[in-house]
Design a protein that fits this description.
The complex is a heterodimer of chains A (239) and B (186). Chain A is α+β, with helices and mostly antiparallel strands. Chain A has two domains: 75 residues, Ubiquitin-like (UB roll) (Roll), CATH 3.10.20.740; 153 residues, Alpha-Beta Plaits. In chain A, the strands form three sheets. Chain A has a five-stranded mixed beta sheet, sandwiched between helices. Chain B has 186 residues and is α/β, with parallel strands linked by helices. Chain B has one domain: Rossmann fold. In chain B, the strands form three sheets. Chain B has a five-stranded parallel beta sheet with strand order 4-3-5-7-9, with helices on both faces. In chain B, strands 1-2 form a two-stranded antiparallel sheet. In chain B, strands 6-8 form a two-stranded antiparallel ribbon. The chains are: A alpha+beta (239), B alpha/beta (186). Chains A and B meet through helix 3 of A and helix 4 of B. The structure holds iron/sulfur cluster (2 copies) and FE2/S2 (inorganic) cluster.
């Protein structure tokens, strides 16, 4: 039996809202129809607070806090939008664009990409930091899928869906900082992976053009992530 | 009035378009304005463009649309000159805004690209050109990294409608608000 849920009252953008004590700011905001931009967050996967796009202002806290991993507290006062937050969010996007090579016009995800949509939504119409233009690999060794590291934003959705939902844990992240890369097994080619089940979940949760089904030309890619709530419910029923 | 008076009444604002390292797709999209081009020509003088004969960039231009990235020594000199003689410089399309497809060579550097194009893939007289063809810069760069840009219009190419909106707003003396109108890769 679950313990009795505590109800908390907080303010988001000046309006009082109620929440369960174990909810995150993001959860509560979305329940109340307040949109906070996110990239690494995906409902039904563990939150990692990686991309920092969901940063919000909390009254009395000097630092901005990521809404997807910050739990609500009684009396908390949260601001989800301000010119300061807009500036930081645009800067975060700009840095993501400079870290790899995003050539939207020739990308498999063009027109169907969360990063591209986010740039348009937040009015990020050019990048003020220098592009790094790293030389990064494309792995096409898998029979069905490919990975183009030029487009990876290190959101780790692939890592999490593979470990938490499929249970294979084929993907992980190696190195650190701007040298971080997702990789399969012991950094062998994806096609030689002994753990990959060919399920394609990683491809479907990837927000960008980094993971793709082979044979899909520009603009043809669609994502099917509706399996997540379904599997999650099934699993909970088994408990 | 954007640019002085002439003897025959107020002079029309002066419009220019230039084509650096791009595929001409942005100019094609501009031409897709079809009959609306006539309206623009009635409101403004097209004083310099790949679409007109003039070979030298005029001294005073109100609005210049720039297609393409800055990839060669020639592009660099051109854009600096154009900036000095333009009131509103518009980075038109992804190549001007992000360096887009031309920047795909940046991870390798100019020498590797020249070697590939003029030596490795050539059977007859392989040789990297040292005259006529403008020397390549080591990197292909967005326009705003070398001169100040006033308006950014992402898109590959931006739609005719978007370009028409930008030009007309600027001719009306307003800064265009592009939110919701275009995006990278559009
Ligand atoms: S992943 Fe998205 S933002 Fe990056 S190049 Fe592809 S479409 Fe553009
Ligand atoms: S491959 Fe896709 S899902 Fe995985 S970390 Fe990169 S962007 Fe995210
Ligand atoms: S969505 Fe919260 S940090 Fe990425």
């Amino acid at each position: 039996m679950k313990p009795a849920e505590q109800v908390t009252v907080l303010k988001i953008n000046g309006d009082e809202v109620s929440a369960h004590a174990d909810q995150t700011i993001l959860d509560v905001a979305r329940e109340n129809g307040i949109e906070i931009p996110t990239l690494c967050y995906l409902e039904n996967l563990t939150e990692v607070g990686g991309c920092r796009l969901c940063l919000v202002e909390i009254k009395g806290a000097a630092k901005l806090q990521p809404a997807c991993v910050t739990r609500v507290r009684e009396g908390m006062e949260v601001a989800t939008h301000s010119s300061r937050l807009d500036t930081y969010r645009r800067k975060i996007l700009e840095l993501i664009f400079t870290e790899r090579n995003h050539i939207c016009s020739v990308c498999v995800a063009n027109g169907n990409c969360d990063l591209q949509d986010m740039a348009a939504a937040l009015g990020m119409d050019h990048v003020t930091y220098p592009y790094l233009n790293p030389s990064v690999p494309v792995d096409l060794s898998h029979e069905l899928f490919g990975i183009d590291q030029n487009r990876c934003i290190l959101c780790t959705r692939c890592v999490r869906v593979c470990a938490e939902i499929e249970g294979a844990h084929t993907w992980d992240v190696r190195n650190s900082g701007i040298n971080s890369r997702v990789f399969t097994d012991f950094n062998e080619p994806w096609g030689e992976s002994q753990t990959c089940t060919n399920c394609g979940k990683c491809v479907n949760v990837c927000p960008t053009g980094a993971l793709f089904k082979k044979g899909k030309a520009v603009g043809e890619r669609t994502r099917q992530i509706d399996f997540l709530p379904y599997l999650k419910t099934m699993r909970e029923e088994l408990k | 009035m954007m640019n002085g008076e002439s003897r025959n009444g107020p002079a029309k604002p002066r419009l220019a378009t230039v084509w650096l390292d791009g595929c001409s797709g942005c100019h094609m999209s501009f031409l897709d304005l079809d009959d609306k081009l006539v309206d623009i020509c009635l409101r403004a003088d097209l004083v310099y463009s790949p679409l007109v004969d003039t070979k030298t960039f005029p001294d005073f231009v109100d609005v210049t649309l720039v297609e393409g990235a800055v990839s060669s020594q020639e592009d660099l000199e051109k854009i600096k000159h154009i900036r000095d003689h333009t009131k509103f410089l518009v980075a038109l399309g992804d190549c001007a805004v992000t360096a887009n497809v031309p920047s795909m060579r940046n991870p390798f550097g100019a020498n590797a690209i020249l070697r590939r194009a003029y030596i490795e893939n050539v059977t007859l007289n392989p040789r990297v050109p040292d005259r006529v063809v403008p020397p390549l810069l080591n990197r292909s760069s967005p326009v705003h990294t070398v001169v100040k840009v006033d308006v950014f219009v992402p898109g590959c190419p931006p739609s005719a409608e978007t370009i028409g909106y930008v030009v007309n707003e600027l001719l009306d003396g307003r800064m265009p608000d592009l939110s919701g109108r275009t995006r990278f890769g559009a």
